[in-house]
Amino acid sequence: MSKIPESEILPITADISDEGRLAIGGCDVRDLVEEYGSPLYIYDEATLRDICQDFVGSFTAEYEQTHIEYSSKAFANPAVSKIVEEEGLDMDVVTGGELAVAIASDFPAERMNFHGNNKGREELSEAIQYGIGLITLDSFAEIDLLNDVAGELGVKQEVMLRLSPSIDPHTHMLTSTGILDSKFGFSIETGDAEVAVEQAIAKENLDVVGLHFHLGSPIFELEPYSEAIDYVLQFAANMRDKYGLELKRFSPGGGFAIGYVSDTLPPAMSDYAKEIAVAIRKGCDAYGLDEPILSVEPGRAIVGRAGVAVYTVGGIKTIPDVRTYVSVDGGMGDNIRPALYESEYAVVPVDRPIATRDQTVTVAGKFCESGDVLARDVDLPSVETGELLALPASGAYCLMMASNYNMQTRPAVVMVKDGEARLIRRRETYKDLLASSLDLA
């Protein structure tokens, strides 16, 4: 049987059904749409577990003291939380809402890390009362606030400090977070990082156990990690000598890339792991540091490939010698990434995944914006109204950044495994959209 061209970016269970259509997790995608409606997001449990195992295996093989923290901002959902917990991953959250999802799934508090650049008093209080293991501080205001909240609750909270190493990861400017001009982290270059270490160590209700940085995402190159690790470890040694900082835990963040289109694939996870492990050992040896516990924080790389978005074709508009627009029933409301970041996506014709693709089209959404385009200039067979189109690698950030723009309901989400589908998030209704709106009366 012929191979689906996008097989390297689709879930590992992607196949062709007996009817010649795209199947995922043993489920015919058209059958899923007929049961759950369109648009529909499909997550493949086998792919999700396989990627979790790849992360754990790759990193612990290179650096035994590694914790993999799933960055739940990529997709916060109780079903996903349970799977990553079962696969031995920790979790990080960045808001009270993501914390609420973790609590709802009974995720172990001691295996959680609370990130975010502007955490509020209520969020911090709730996290401490839940017994959260780590809180990563991102501003001077947070140092003072968390010390106050922890004191009120009678807790000495373990914390990490997020630093900015001013290193360019060569990714989109809107997703670069470790450069000097960033809202995130204490800058080493400006001296803020040293002041933060001095202040945090002096707080009676804070226990500074480590340092963290995050360069951005997605990162297709290995060298930025090793460059930043060396710089931050040198800083850690200086802080040890000046203020007695003991580096028990160290995190170079995440940012590991995935393939969105077949001709742009990232390094293997084992390559990322080796680059990071070698850099830590080399830096610790050079600066006289004990090797710390390593934490890495993949989000996109955990759930991205596991998820596929499926849409139904509606109107088709051909402008001779210009472009053919194929409009679908979703768009920027459920996937803002192409409009926001100019992100590229491949498109798979669900009903004919291996058919000859002899027509170049632009797949547009249904929202009232000219920028509502999901995929530009992609090759497809001649499509008709009612056909289904699938976008691989839609498992990360799409749903978390989704909105109700134009009062559009957000799609249902199913998890598939061994020919069975389970609803893990129901489709919104108009009643849901109106529930929080009040009349003047």
Unreliably modeled segments: none
CATH topology of the largest domain: TIM Barrel
CATH architecture of the largest domain: Alpha-Beta Barrel
User: Mean pLDDT, nearest integer?
Assistant: 96
What share of the residues lie within helices? 25-40%
CATH class call of the largest domain:
Alpha Beta
The tally of helices reads 12
| CATH-assigned homologous superfamily of the largest domain | Alanine racemase
Question: How many structurally independent domains?
Answer: 2
Category from helices, strands and their pairing: alpha/beta
Question: What is the molecular shape?
Answer: globular
Please report which band the strand proportion falls in: under 5%, 5-15%, 15-25%, 25-35%, 35-45% or over 45%.
Answer: 15-25%
Query: Span between N and C termini?
Result: 64 Å
Radius of gyration over all CA atoms, rounded: 23 Å
Number of strands: 21
List the helices and strands and how they pair.
Elements: E1 15-16, E2 22-24, E3 27-28, H1 29-36, E4 40-44, H2 45-62, E5 66-71, H3 78-86, E6 90-93, H4 96-104, E7 112-114, H5 121-130, E8 134-137, H6 140-152, E9 157-164, E10 186-187, H7 192-202, E11 206-213, H8 223-243, E12 249-251, H9 269-287, E13 293-296, H10 300-303, E14 307-319, E15 323-328, H11 337-341, E16 348-349, E17 359-364, E18 373-380, E19 388-391, E20 412-417, E21 420-425, H12 430-434
Parallel strand pairs: 4-20, 5-6, 5-13, 6-7, 7-8, 8-9, 9-10, 9-11, 11-12, 12-13, 15-17
Antiparallel strand pairs: 1-2, 2-3, 4-14, 14-15, 14-19, 16-19, 17-18, 20-21
